[in-house]
Amino acid sequence: MAIRDYIRERFMPHIWCPGCGHGIVMNNLIRAVENLELRKRDIVMVSGIGCSARISGYLDFHTLHTLHGRALAFATGVKMARPELRILVPMGDGDATAIGGNHFIHAARRNIDLTAVIMNNRIYGMTGGQYSPLSGRGKAATTAPLGNIDQAFDIADLAMSAGASFVARTTTYHAVSMIKILEKAIMHKGFSVVEILTQCPTYFGRKNRLGSAVDMMKAYKTGTTPVGSEAKKEDPELIERGIFVEEDRPEYCTEYENIIKKAMGVH
Ligand code: SF4
């Protein structure tokens, strides 16, 4: 199929600001699905609220645009009812780790077969630039004009600690390798987390004087390093990108199916 066959053109033009990274992520999600030769009808995309969550409206899969922070809860319900479908869950950092943080750690703990794509732009863009759990101490936001006093945490570390069996990080600068990571995440049997560092030039970039969208993407090039590289030992400030965990572990729907069989006396 052509890429445009995945787009709901009736919802164009999109709402994203010039230079926003979300378009790169949406484009690469399409390319990953196309490369995997998956059928549109076998994919359900579930999102909550936020600029990133608009992806579910723009793409022509089965889609659910749900409540803020609750995308993984809805996705869990869909997966339990129709485990043969592939469920993609695009979320922002606030959506996934603030109001949806509880759902996030428990989806990881259960290792349910969902693909969580977390676009981390370190701010709430849609609602006007409030700081998120990923903004980081000292960063400026609409609600932190003198500097944020909250510490950030690491999404990949959190996902691994909570039990996700596939965890990766990439950036909008690394668009080509992002496609391969998304392909692996989509095909992985278990809870997959792909954190994507993505620029919000309108709020996080402007408030923190990070320059243009291009400048922000260049910072992803210079400020990250492949996981396990020597560069990280020399400069601990570098952010690692790549696949951190990719393991076979018991998957929740399969385990649940086994319980049903036991209850029915089927062995
Ligand atoms: S506010 Fe930020 S995240 Fe939202 S569309 Fe604009 S650049 Fe993208």
Question: What do you see in this structure?
Answer:
The chain has one domain (3-264): Rossmann fold, CATH 3.40.50. It has 11 helices and 10 strands. It has helices at residues 22-35, 55-58, 71-81, 93-99, 101-110, 155-162, 175-187, 201-207, 213-222, 230-234, 252-264, and strands at 43-47, 62-65, 86-92, 115-120, 123-124, 130-131, 166-171, 192-197, 224-226, 239-246. The strands form 2 sheets. An 8-stranded mixed sheet has the order 2-1-3-4-8-7-10-9, sandwiched between helices. Strands 5-6 form a two-stranded antiparallel sheet. Strand 5 (123-124) and strand 6 form a beta hairpin. Helix 1 packs across helix 7 (175-187), helix 4 packs across helix 5 (101-110) and helix 5 crosses helix 6. The chain binds iron/sulfur cluster (SF4). Iron/sulfur cluster binds next to helix 8. Iron/sulfur cluster (SF4) is lined by residues 16-17, 20, 22, 51, 121, 125-126, 200-203.
In short:
With 267 residues, the protein is of the alpha/beta class. Helix content is 38%, strand content 18%.
Labels describing this entry:
267 residues; alpha/beta; Rossmann fold; eight-stranded mixed sheet; two-stranded antiparallel sheet; 11 helices; 10 strands; 18% strand; globular; binds iron/sulfur cluster
